[in-house]
Amino acid sequence: MRLPSIGGGKGNSPLDFAESAKMIDAALKGGVNYFDTAYVYQGGESERCVGEAMKKYPRDSFYLATKFNYGANPDYKAVFAEQLQRLQTDHIDFYLIHCLLDSNIENYLNCGCIEYFEQMKKEGKITYLGFSNHASPETLRRFADAHKWDFAQIQMNYLDWEFSTSEEEYNILTERNIPVVVMESVRGGRLSDLTPELNAKLQAAQPGRSVSSWAFRWLMRHENVMVMLSGMSTMEQVEDNLKTFESDCALTDEQCAFLKEIAHEF
Fold it and tell me: Is 9 a residue whose pLDDT tops 60?
């Protein structure tokens, strides 16, 4: 789960702490246990909001994921210490090198941050170390082979599977036994509301299921997907996602073929 900002905005939009806390409460009650943030989200307010909202819950009842971004602040030791303080915790469950690009791979490989975060693992301050990819498949291969990663995060959905590099990235990681965390499951909301005609086709094919649910149920087909992230900005979205995951309802082969047709029409 990612947190809402006022008006459902992104980037550095201010967070609505009260609404975020309500949504976190509902998500936890419904079974969500992975909460994703980053040092740069909302200028640091996202991490502070997560820390404040989660402090009333037993620490072993949820997983925290956050990230180090070299471009925002290359002082990885100071960043990590500040993140623990913001999140009001003594350890981070899933820690990521943030936003790997073709242009910044050398920074991440040579700055010493990977070695430092491995030391934090040994000290129990990080449980799993991974990275989020926005680079080309060639750069992804190089970075994946540069270290023994516990997981990696990629953009993956049924649209990008057809028209971008999602399938290749997923296969690169799967071949290396690196579990996948999926971002952009509904492609920034685009797969929650296609066109009136395509929305109607999906809803007619399976009444009672939202348009968004098709994207998540497509992801359920992929065995190496460990976590599917969803940026939710309303309580209605939380409730719809909880409904989607109430049962194991991965798409059938026939439904996948139908969804592929929808993607090409879109």
Answer: no
